[in-house]
Write a structure and sequence with these properties.
Strand content: 15-25%
Mean pLDDT: 88
Oligomer: single chain
Number of helices: 9
Largest sheet: 9 strands, mixed
Structural class: alpha/beta
Number of strands: 9
C-alpha cells in the first residue's frame, strides 16, 4: 500500500473507476486548490486558507475526522500511544499543529497545569480549540495556544519541552517545511526529550497530491533529521493500530562536545 504514487495519472484513473462517488468532490477540491495557490505566496498561507475553508464547514473534518466518533477515536489513539511510550504527567509538552485539540484535550487533562503548549498556523482552528477547552472544562489546566507563521519555533526557550508532538503535520508539508522544523526542534528539546511525528509513508517515488498531501520515504526523513544532529527511529508498532500514517521518534544526538549552531 505504501508504494503507490497517487500523483500519477494512471492511479487517478483507476481510483476514479473504483470510487466514482468521490469524483465530484475531487474536482471541487482541485478547483479550490488551484484558486488558493494563485492567491497564496507560500505553503503556510496556502494551507491556512485550506484550513479556513474546511473549518468553516466542520472543524472536526478540517483536522481529518469524517465523524465525531472518528475524531474521538484518533485523539484517544494518539494519547494512548504517547502515554505508553514515555509521556508522564509532569512533562512539559509542545503540540505542533494542535488543531481543535482532537488529542490535545486528553493531553491537557493528563498533564499538570500549565504544561501543555499548542501551536497552529490556522486562527480558525485555534478558535475551535478554545471551544474544546470550554466544552471539556479544561480551563483550570491553563493550556497555552499560539498562532504561528512558520515552524522555526524562535519564540520558545531553549530545552523547554520534554515531549514534542506533531500528528498529521508533515503529511501536509513540503520538504522545506519539514526541514525547517527539524532544524529548530532540537533547540527546544530538553535533555532526554523526544519528538514524535507522523507522516504519509511511501516505498516508491516521493510525491504529493494537490500540494495538500505529501508522501515521503522513511529514509529521507531519517537522513534529514541526522543533518540537524537528531537521531530518528521508525516506530513500527504505531502502524499496528491501523492508522494510515507512519510515525518516527526523534531524540537529540548524544555529543561529546557543544552542539553546533
Amino acid at each position: 500500500m505504501h508504494s503507490k504514487d497517487r500523483s500519477r495519472f494512471s492511479f487517478k484513473i483507476f481510483y476514479a473507476l473504483r470510487h466514482p462517488g468521490r469524483i465530484a468532490g475531487y474536482i471541487r477540491r482541485r478547483g479550490r486548490d488551484a484558486w488558493l495557490l494563485r492567491k497564496s505566496p507560500d505553503h503556510v498561507s496556502y494551507y491556512r486558507a485550506v484550513m479556513r475553508s474546511d473549518a468553516s464547514r466542520s472543524p472536526e473534518a478540517a483536522v481529518g475526522s469524517h465523524s465525531h466518533e472518528y475524531w474521538l477515536q484518533v485523539g484517544q489513539l494518539q494519547f494512548d500511544y504517547a502515554t505508553s511510550h514515555g509521556l508522564k504527567p509532569d512533562m512539559r509538552m509542545l503540540e505542533i499543529g494542535c488543531g481543535n485539540l482532537r488529542a490535545g484535550r486528553l493531553f491537557i487533562d493528563y498533564l499538570e497545569p500549565g504544561c501543555y503548549y499548542g501551536l497552529d498556523i490556522s486562527p480558525d482552528i485555534l478558535l475551535s480549540a478554545q471551544d474544546t477547552i470550554a466544552d471539556y472544562d479544561l480551563r483550570a489546566k491553563l493550556p497555552h495556544l499560539t498562532l504561528v507563521n512558520n515552524l522555526r519555533l524562535h519564540f520558545l526557550p531553549d530545552a523547554a519541552f520534554d515531549f514534542v508532538h506533531a500528528h498529521s503535520v508533515f503529511s501536509h508539508s513540503p520538504i522545506e517545511v519539514v526541514d525547517e522544523c527539524l532544524a529548530h526542534v532540537g533547540r527546544i528539546l530538553a535533555p532526554g526529550g523526544f519528538f514524535d511525528f507522523t507522516f504519509d509513508r511511501t516505498e516508491g517515488p516521493e510525491h504529493h497530491v494537490l500540494r495538500e498531501d505529501f508522501y515521503y520515504r522513511t529514509e529521507t526523513l531519517i537522513v534529514l533529521a541526522a543533518k540537524h544532529c537528531l537521531d530518528a527511529t521508525f516506530m513500527d508498532d504505531w502502524e499496528q493500530n491501523g492508522h494510515p500514517q507512519s510515525k518516527i521518534r526523534v531524540t537529540l544526538t548524544v555529543m561529546s562536545g557543544p552542539r553546533p549552531g
